[in-house]
Amino acid sequence: MEMMRKKLSFDEGMYIEPERMSGGLALWWKNEMVVKVLIGNKNVIDTIIMVPKVIVVLRVMWIYGVPRFEERKGVWEYIKRNVRGSKDPLICVGDFNDVLYENENEGFNGQKFTWFGIREGVLIKERLDRILVNLEWMEEFPNIQVTNLLAVGSDHSPIVMETKHKDRKGERKFKVEAIWVIMKGCEKVVKKGWEKRFERTNVDQVVEKLEYCKKLLIDWSKKVVPNNKKLIAELMQKIRERQNCVDSVQGYEEVKEMKNQIRQAWERDEVFWYQKAKVNWLNMGIRTQDFFINQPSKEEEEIKF
Question: Is 301 left (phi over 0), alpha (psi -120 to 50) or beta?
Fold first, then answer.
């Protein structure tokens, strides 16, 4: 778990060890957040979080509701005791292992059901994972958005909550990927683009050459560079279309096979970029992964769980 935490660039973490082969919780966070753990057990990690640019203290409860009703009842009792009378923004998030009410369709985007499984040969779909907030949280973060992602790496859907949701659609800017430089044929493509003559002034001719090189590189990369991203997106769309409406064991198995194909694509993508990056680190003496991976810019006053 520590290797995974470091790989995903989280600075700190805490763990609740599993009991035999089941259970276990992990909580990771960045250094810009100050996290104080009030209680940690197999069902609840209760925390106080201080975030830059947010004046108030945030109370966050990370929940795992066990399948047994008796123990799950104790989790709900703990939540009720601590929510009552709280004046701080408070959120409860996780796998509650409980259905609040039938036809629970409001308050989120994405997948309707967050858990899929087979019980005694019957397909079962339920919404067990959710985010609950109090009024103070809504007042502090009025533009929150909750999204249930596809259940691919697990039989549960990941949940993402953005406190300051923005529609980030926009034209994608062209950039030369560092990996292209060490791939066979790239230099020839650039040379071809740069040698083309245009009837322009010197400055305008440079602009035309750059645009032509851009076009050639894009066409070349589509043919040469493995497009696992496109394959994954297509499979994700197919799962999105099938996961909510699947109504048979056969349909469940078809979705399961598509998940396996996505995992294989992820593995190919990871191995490809790791191998290429490692070659360039050795040849060029570069020791920072930031040279290869474009990190997303931080949105001011935004928290993402």
Answer: left
Averaged confidence pLDDT in the chain: 80
Contacts of 17 (CB under 8 A, 6+ apart): 24
C-alpha to C-alpha distance for 129 and 125, rounded to whole angstroms: 12
**How many CB atoms are located within 10 Å of the residue 215 CB?**
12
Residue among 71, 91, 117 at smallest CA distance from 246: 117
What percent helix, strand, coil does the chain show, rounded to 5?
Answer: 40, 20, 40
Tokens encoding 62? 């990370």
Q: Which residue type does 132 have?
A: L
Structure token digits, residue 278: 């490692």
């050639």: which residue's tokens?
A: 216
CA distance linking residue 32 with residue 4, whole number of Å: 20
Collect all residues with Cβ–Cβ distance below 8 Å to 284 and sequence separation of at least 6: none
**How many Å apart are CA 200 and CA 79, to the nearest integer?**
71
* Cα–Cα distance, 226 to 234 (Å, whole number): 15
Among the listed residues 246, 19, 16, the one whose alpha carbon sits nearest the alpha carbon of residue 113: 246
Name the DSSP class of 156.
Answer: B
- Tens of pLDDT, residue by residue over 53-104, are 777 889 999 988 877 777 778 888 888 888 887 888 999 998 888 877 666 6
Give me the helix-helix angle, 186-195 and 202-224, nearest 10°: 150
301 neighbors 164 (Cβ within 8 angstroms) = yes
* Cα gap 52→33, rounded to integer Å: 7
